[in-house]
Amino acid sequence: MRDNFSSEVTALAGADPRIVLLMADIGNHLFDRFKELYPERFFNCGIAESNMISVAAGLAMSGLRPVVYTFSAFDVGRPFEQIRVDLAFQNLPVVIIGLGGGLTYSPLGPTHYICEDLSITRSLPNMTVICPADAVETRAAIRVSLQHNGPVYIRIGKKNEPVIHECVPNFVIGKGITVKDGTEICILGTGTIMPDVIIAAKQLSEAGFNPRVVSFHTIKPLDTELLEEIFSDYSLVVTVEEHSLIGGLGAAVAEWISDQSSPSKCHLLRIGTPDEFLYHAIHQKTARDVYGLSPEKIAKTVSAHYRQIIEKMH
User: Fold this and answer.
1) 132, pLDDT greater than 90
2) Could you identify which of 10, 111, 270, 276 might form a hypothetical disulfide with 250, taking C-beta atoms 3.0 to 4.6 angstroms apart as the criterion?
3) 242, 197 in Cβ contact below 8 A?
4) pTM of the model
């Protein structure tokens, strides 16, 4: 996904001279082509993420369209004050690219993995939060974000993530994309966990269920039109995210439900990381399994929950 981000922003910069790229001393070779074509629009701000955000704010106020890039743990965790005051408060059009959010960098320990970035950014007024599922959605998310008049946080994966779309979908901020149709159960997934969600859905189908699967790529604003539809038509809605259950996709959907005037008969099941730190430096795949985010455990949790619903109905 990071290679697709780099090539997409380089292509877009050719058509829009306002686009400038800022990075915090990582991925130097990733941007060789951008630096070759547009050296005057590339800024290595060093390991000084807070300053980088403030520089981006100044560039945006000068009429440019800055794109900021570094690890999610560093471009959200460190400069929160600058994101809040310099970007969100002033509603400036800066795109923040967060590399490797979730458990991607769990092998590097607590300094590099982050399961709170969506919650942190979602809480800020004016902020749009996007979590693409694959390289196709990453390219689309960058394109639409650079047309958006306000700050945007995009969490992307590292590399070699499976592509879930056979063709380029109609990607609109705040509008989910149905990947697979189904009945009774609707699974909303977000980010790079989507390929595992699709495998889990296949396992559920083999077990006799027929779940619908939606790539819910935008955490804020929510696709409330879609939520109204699925909470009317399905018995069980499941959210799956590589993020804390506090403040992420599942929490956002739960908040939306609680604000509705009419109670829904549909059940909500949230699958994500618990309210705890991961104290072991382990591979992302292992970490997902620990937290019940492997395809097998997702399918097992969903099928068990749905059977309980059916038993109560009878």
Assistant:
1) yes
2) 270
3) no
4) 0.96
